[in-house]
Amino acid sequence: MTNKANKDPNLNPAPWPMTLAEVTVMNVDRLRPMCIEQEEAPGSWELARQRDKFRVRMLSGDTNRRRESSLLIEKMYSWRGYRSHAPLEQQPNRLTLTAEFNGHIYGTITVNVDSPMGLGVDETFPEEIRALREQGRKLCEIGKFAVEQTVRSKRLLMTMFHLTYIYAHHLLGCTDLMIEVNPRHALFYLRALHFARVGKEHVCHRVGAPAVLLHLECARAASLLREFGGRWREHPEEKSLYKYGFHPDEESAIVARLGKAG
After folding, report:
1. 36, 109, 183, 190, 215 from 212: Cα distances, Å
2. Which among 259, 41, 17, 35 has a CA at the least distance from the CA of 151?
3. Which one of 15, 108, 132, 241 is separated from 25 by 20 to 30 angstroms, measured CA to CA?
4. What is the CATH number of the domain that holds 143?
5. 3-state DSSP: the chain helix, strand, coil percent, rounded to 5?
6. Is residue 6 part of a domain?
7. Is residue 1 part of a domain?
8. 69-74 contacts: CB < 8 A, separation 24 or more?
9. Which residues lie below 8 Å from residue 169, measured CB to CB, with a gap of 6+?
10. Local confidence pLDDT in tens for the 262 residues of the chain
């Protein structure tokens, strides 16, 4: 894997460089859907049989790129009969990253930082989210995670996840990550990213599907990244995705560069 990285206290990501990382995909690791909005389609093939270099970029105000990202998300929703969402919009508490190859968008991930506007998970899990806030935790939620079915790379997935973690935790001080997933896929994410389930299953009315709430303390993610980050060759037996993340030295360099950019 090649992970090359290129704070904004006001939740404005504009000063960041457009390309945050490059990921050279050289394997065919199976990639499962990350959150409630994404489902798998059958018959998908492996784009990653070649040494394809994806660029992970911040989604700007470019109308065409924003439209392409929205269409990818809508495609992943509608394939399983989920209700489509409104197009991606710029908001001061939101950062959206895209994975691009040859000028086309193959993946997106969005992180929403808690603010007076609230979070999307408030709608489905209000009591659970309120309880965490009352403990003094600073929350953020991961959503709008959609990856084109021609891409199957754990390295690319973890790079996108790791960058959202860096933004939320290191730059904005979030203490906890939240995500809604389909119950059928919850076990995978509990094992792959060490999330923990919170509360009971509910219906997510935004997409018209069952959902469970998963929670990850940033301190837990930090510990796993220190132990496994960038060491996938050294830990072939490790089942989580953390070994595909940035090495701790790389993470520190990314935080420093993004801090200077802000």
Report:
1. 9, 19, 6, 12, 10
2. 41
3. 15
4. 3.40.630.30
5. 35, 25, 40
6. no
7. no
8. 69/96, 69/98, 69/105, 69/108, 72/105, 72/106, 72/107, 72/108, 72/146, 72/148, 73/37, 73/108, 73/144, 73/146
9. 175, 218, 221, 222
10. 445 444 333 444 444 446 677 776 644 444 444 455 444 443 333 343 445 677 888 765 454 544 544 443 444 444 344 444 544 455 567 888 888 887 777 778 889 999 998 998 999 999 999 999 999 999 999 987 777 766 778 888 899 899 999 999 999 999 999 999 889 888 878 999 999 999 999 998 877 889 999 999 999 999 999 999 999 999 999 999 999 999 999 999 999 888 776 5
Residue 121 counted as domain residue: yes
pTM over 0.90: no
Residue with the two structure tokens 């860096």? 166
Domain annotation covers residue 3: no
Count of domains observed in the chain: 1
